[in-house]
């Protein structure tokens, strides 16, 4: 799934590299027939394209790195719950309410019996 989500970014980065390579080739062709003043400006543009190309290639390398799956342990779960409790302890009421609403589809409260019936949100969609 992660690879599928990265595919559009990877395609975009590869397309950008092709554009920059084409731009570099065009500038180098133009440099061959340019006069002294124009060649100075073209050399500056070639350097800018080279820097962009280097950044785009670094982005490709970053996207191509394999992701290691996160190992879910009891300690990690407890730490995450503690972190969320800490955040919620200091959050405004509106944030707490929004967070609970995001977790559940429907909440029915019976104030006489002081009970709440909740229907969980389907995490697939």
Describe the structure.
The protein folds into two domains: 63 residues; 47 residues, no CATH class. The protein contains four helices and two strands. Helix 1 packs antiparallel against helix 2. The protein has a two-stranded antiparallel ribbon. It is mainly alpha-helical and 125 residues long. The chain is elongated and about 90 Å long. A hairpin with a 4-residue loop joins strand 1 and strand 2.
What is the average of the pLDDT values?
A: 79
Order of helices and strands: HHHHEE
Strand order of the largest sheet: 1-2
Number of DSSP-assigned strands: 2
Q: Which structural class is indicated by helix and strand composition?
A: mainly alpha
In terms of DSSP E residues, the strand content is: 5-15%
Features:
2 domains, single chain, mainly alpha, 125 residues, 2 strands
Give the secondary structure arrangement, pairings included:
Layout: H1 2-32, H2 36-64, H3 74-90, H4 93-103, E1 104-110, E2 115-120
Antiparallel strand pairs: 1-2
Helix pairs in contact: 1-2
């Amino acid at each position: 799934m992660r690879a599928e989500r990265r595919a559009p970014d990877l395609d975009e980065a590869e397309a950008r590299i092709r554009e920059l390579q084409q731009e570099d080739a065009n500038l180098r062709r133009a440099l061959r027939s340019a006069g002294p003043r124009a060649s100075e400006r073209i050399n500056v543009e070639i350097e800018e394209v080279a820097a962009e190309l280097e950044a785009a290639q670094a982005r490709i390398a970053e996207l191509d790195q394999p992701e290691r799956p996160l190992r879910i342990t009891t300690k990690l779960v407890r730490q995450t719950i503690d972190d969320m409790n800490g955040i919620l302890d200091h959050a405004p009421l509106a944030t707490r309410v929004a967070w609970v609403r995001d977790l559940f589809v429907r909440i029915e409260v019976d104030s006489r019996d002081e009970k709440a019936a909740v229907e969980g949100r389907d995490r697939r969609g």
